Amino acid sequence: MTKRQKRMAAVVLLLVGLSVAAVLGFTAFSKNMMYFQTPSDIAAGKLPEGARIRLGGLVEKGSVQRGDGLLVNFSVADCEARLPVRYEGILPDLFREGQGIVATGHMDGRTFVADEVLAKHDENYMPPELAEKLVTPDGKHSCEQFKSMGAKA
Amino acid sequence: MGGYGLYVWGSFGCGLAVLAWNALSPRLARRALMRQMTESE
Amino acid sequence: MSSWTWFHRLASPPSFFRLADRLAPWLGWIALALLAYGWINGLFFAPEDYQQKDAYRIIYVHVPAAALSLSLYVGMAVAGFVALVWRMKLAESALIAIAPVGASFTALALVTGMLWGKPMWGAYWVWDARLTSELVLLFLYFGVIGLWQAFEDPRAAARACALLAVVGVINVPIVKYSVDWWNSLHQGSTILKMGKPSITAAMAWPLFASVIGSYLFAGYVILRRLQNELLQREAGTAWVRELMGKSRV
Questions:
Q1: Do the domain assignments include residue A152?
Q2: Taking every annotated instance into account, which residue ranges of this chain make up the domain Cytochrome c assembly protein (chain C) (predicted)?
Q3: Do residues A94 and A136 share a domain?
Q4: Is the ipTM of this complex over 0.90?
Q5: Range C19-44 average pLDDT
Q6: pLDDT tens for residues C142-161?
Q7: Nearest Cα residue in chain B from C229
Q8: Do B14 and C108 make contact, defined as CB atoms within 8 angstroms?
Q9: From the list B1, B7, B34, which residue is nearest C244 (CB)?
Q10: Same domain, A22 and A81
Q11: Is A151 part of any domain?
């Protein structure tokens, strides 16, 4: 091997080694890379009671009930399961029925008590006129952006 | 901008600033470099 | 070996310098025209979005910056690879020329992302996989720039920078696919999505123009920076003296 070939082999080997290490590392810690968990994950009972978690899913159509002041109850669903959520505070502009959200909080019995609610929008952009024509029975938003950890891991 | 003016204009302002910095800094560097090289001759 | 003569000629500093001189103005002006078209249409003439209203217009700054942040890193890593293996000076200079440009667009992607996140998501920043890996990308650019400034000897500095650039390229697919591999608050890719188009034509054309315009603009800036690097490195050589003689007239 010439010196140049040796250098190339060294750099390629280094890169391959680091890539393998990265893949192994991220596969092992895939759970920690998840920003939120879905109602299915919580239904599967993989989480300790009272732990602080993030819940992601779609705000179910017809589930939003406003209470006194800023109190609001709604349920969050992914493609398979749903979970009732209680939240008291200011909601983001995008919050509405059918919208994706990520809520931070903890489980209180069968209800998820949130102290922060963020909106998660999808990657589709279109004018309102077009969006109205596209309404499907399950709303304009897809539950597919909420992957269950069980399915991924 | 429907109440989002600050965010939208802020973003385009930052974009313009980055474009301006990128366009100007090599030009200024070239000028300084040329001056420095003529002086050292 | 004769097929390689064009390559060696291109890699020689004086001929590359002249080529850059001819190419750069074209890149610059076309970039400016495309960016002006894209941004003016994006700001004033594209329809508003059904869910994000006018706030989505940040896409015309954010997406080109984010795309560039990744592409420029790949370009820098390729230059680093060539510099490490072939010890080519032009590749070393290219690496140093790309780093600050890439860093500036990465910072722009992060800042516009924050300005978009606050009104839409409800938070400037979250530590999800996409945002965190993009921040790591910025630090990698800073690392390359810092290493370059830390060494006295430019060749040793270039070698250290090249190694960091090449190793850091592992972060690029992580940024790109973070939204597919893991749950994140950030949405998936709009433009490079398989299947049905996810953006209306009236919104998409200004976006394509801004993206292509930004790429050409980055090309222009990198050529100009590369010319400066070459001048500095080759100061005192015959071709630089000749060039300065011309510029003084």
A1: no
A2: 31-186
A3: yes
A4: yes
A5: 97
A6: 999 999 999 999 999 999 99
A7: B30
A8: yes
A9: B34
A10: no
A11: no
pLDDT of residue A79: 84
pLDDT at res. B38: 84
Substitution target from C224, C226, C239, C244 for chain B, most B beta carbons within 10 A:
C224
Q: What tokens were used for C226?
A: 């590369």
pLDDT in tens, A116-142: 999 999 888 988 888 777 755 444 567
| Same domain as A119, residue A47 | yes
| Same domain? A128 vs A66 | yes
- The model's pLDDT over A54-99, given as tens digits with 9 standing for 90+, comes to 999 999 999 999 999 899 999 999 888 999 999 999 999 999 998 8
User: Is A35 marked within a binding site?
Assistant: no
Q: Is the pLDDT of residue A153 over 50?
A: no
CATH number, position A98: 2.40.50.140
C81's tokens:
């690879």
* Closest residue in chain C to residue A27, using alpha carbons only: C181
Buried b (16+ CB within 10 A) or exposed e, A75-109: bbbbbebbbbbbbeeebbbbbbeebbbbbbbbbee
- How many domains are contained in chain B? 1
Model confidence, pTM: 0.93
CA proximity to C128, closest of A108, A118, A35, B10: A35
Interface of C with B in 78-117 (CB under 8 A): 100-101, 104-105, 107-108, 111-112, 115-116
Q: What is the total count of domains within chain A?
A: 2
Range of the domain at A69: 35-146
Looking at the structure, tell me whether residues A26 and A44 fall in a common domain. Answer: no
> What CA–CA distance (Å, rounded) separates C46 from C56?
10
SS3 at position A108: strand
Domain extents for chain C? 26-45+53-184+197-248
